[in-house]
Design a protein that fits this description.
Elements: E1 2-7, E2 16-20, E3 30-39, H1 41-47, E4 59-60, E5 64-72, E6 82-86, E7 101-104, E8 110-111, H2 118-140, E9 150-152, H3 158-169, E10 174-178, H4 190-198, E11 206-208, E12 224-229, H5 233-241, E13 243-251, H6 265-269, E14 273-276, H7 284-297, E15 307-311, H8 315-323, E16 330-334
Parallel strand pairs: 9-10, 9-12, 10-11, 12-13, 13-14, 15-16
Antiparallel strand pairs: 1-2, 1-4, 3-5, 3-7, 3-16, 5-6, 6-8
């Protein structure tokens, strides 16, 4: 029998942990015995039924799966291989990774970079991979370190944390937007203080999210050469309004909302570019480039400061903490 976080209908108040028959985890090219998953913001929304993430039911949640192949009809992924699946509709249209098993098409699987563990891959997950896609968009624009600081919104969360680490590794100056500081710019908790210390973000490089969370002027003071935004709504509009001439904004999330009540002024008067970052159906070449960037910048234990590991049974409880902004970094779910 296999434990899994599942929603039977959209009308449920929340997902439930159920014990399912192994036969329900079959029918695809490869069956994985899952070692780890993780809790992305999207997973937290799905588990708590805060937003309609699942597109069909019943649905096992979790957009990341990391584990060992135990059944396979694919020569590329023989039994015993430890590998990962990031997104591809997991937890939305296909049963996901917050379980002890996963059955997936072979073409969805990605290798774990050489010298890195399953736990390292899960700690990054879709959030880390998305952060890398955002940084790739900045590089391809191109934005160079000497062009000026890069604003990273939601820098207490998974995407923001990893984006900050990647950008700093590449030599960029980072300014973080967060709700985990007070009006004086000081961290609101000891854990937040340790988080920002590890990210090398002092009070001069931190901005309270309230300063950008309300409607602002169409054009504001040019401050940032580029932006990595996981928040959306007014924050994204204000970020565009503060981006320097010819800069780029990589938008990958909607923590504040999916609305965009902005102006064309930054685009036609400053020539900025708004790049949408979709991580679900990227090519393997793009995925390999992103994971290569992550492996080059982040060693096996570089992520320990940002990891909170929980048991599979604790996933729903942890999801509520994620939505309440009471956790910094990444929640790794041990599925064993």
């Amino acid at each position: 029998m296999i434990r899994a976080w599942i929603s039977r209908t959209a009308e449920q108040a929340q997902a439930e942990m159920e014990t399912l028959d192994e036969s329900e985890f079959a029918g695809q090219d490869v069956v994985l015995k899952l070692h780890y998953s993780c809790l992305n913001y999207k997973d937290a929304l799905a588990l708590t039924h805060t937003a309609p993430i699942a597109r069909k039911y019943p649905m096992v949640h979790g957009i990341d799966a990391v584990g060992e192949v135990i059944e396979s009809n694919s020569d590329q992924w023989p039994v015993g291989t430890v590998c990962q699946v990031n997104d591809w509709g997991l937890g939305e249209t296909h049963w996901g990774g917050l379980a002890e098993r996963a059955s997936v098409p072979a073409q969805w699987i990605s290798p774990i970079p050489e010298g890195r563990s399953a736990r390292w891959a899960a700690a990054l997950g879709t959030a880390g991979y998305t952060a890398a896609l955002c940084v790739m968009a900045l590089q391809d624009h191109p934005v160079k370190p000497e062009d000026g600081p890069v604003l990273v919104t939601g820098v207490s969360g998974g995407v923001g944390t990893v984006a900050c680490l990647l950008l700093q590794h590449l030599g960029y100056e980072v300014v973080g937007l967060t709700g985990s500081i007070d009006a004086m710019g000081e961290p609101v908790s000891e854990s937040a203080a340790k988080h920002f210390e590890r990210l090398q973000l002092g009070s001069t490089h931190l901005i309270h999210r309230e300063s950008m969370s309300r409607p602002g002027k169409p054009l504001q003071k040019e401050q940032f050469a580029a932006v990595v935004d996981s928040v959306g709504s007014h924050t994204l509009v204000n970020a565009c309004a503060q981006t320097k001439y010819g800069g780029v904004v990589a938008a990958c999330g909607l923590a504040q909302g999916m609305d965009f009540q902005g102006s064309v002024a930054p685009f036609i008067l400053r020539g900025i570019t708004l790049r949408g970052i979709n991580c679900v159906y990227r090519t393997h070449a793009e995925r390999d480039r992103a994971w290569g960037m992550l492996a080059q910048a982040l060693n096996e234990y570089d992520l320990d400061f940002m990891i909170k590991e929980v048991r599979l049974a604790q996933a729903l409880e942890s999801a509520r903490l994620v939505l309440a902004n009471q956790l910094q970094g990444r929640v790794v779910v041990n599925c064993a």
